[in-house]
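In this supplementary section we document a worked example of the pipeline. Step one takes a protein sequence of length 177 as its only input; no multiple sequence alignment statistics are reported here. Step two produces a three-dimensional model, which step three serialises into structure tokens for compact storage. The input and output of this example are shown verbatim.
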Amino acid sequence: MKLLLLSTVADTELSLKDYFPLIGSSIVIILFIIERILSYGIRKKERKTNWYYKVFIDPNIEKINSFFDNTKQTYVESSKEIKSYLTRPNILDYKSHEIGKFQTLKRDFENDILLPIISSYQEIGNSLTEELLNLEDVYAECMDKIHGDETYQNEFSKKLSERKAQFFKMLFKPINK
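The serialised model returned by step three reads:
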């Protein structure tokens, strides 16, 4: 009987080698779960980026370019008007009126483009609004510099291009992350 007990105990002893198949399959299952979690996170980020592009950027890219083109055109037209009033005593009233034309453009642009972005991406929307306010400052500053020669138009064109580039940089920030 004693011999039978010893042989039973010896048969039930498991070595580390016996656990390798169990450990190996457990590792494979854990790696599979980790891969699925990582894939889900990546797909979720891609969907969010694609949604931002399709909803905010793609349908509005023409409107944005048009706004900057209209801003330049408005400035050129306004500068011609201001030049014709340079010798009049109420020149500041004329400048204010011409700056008001830009503010109307800006307000329409904010309503059409920026408000939807602000509602979903407040940080980006606020950055874009700040860029628009910087553009307004540039517009008013260059409007004040109007005098007899045409150098102010070149300066405005350069600064407008810089503001446009900065605006697009902010607009594409969620995609470039």
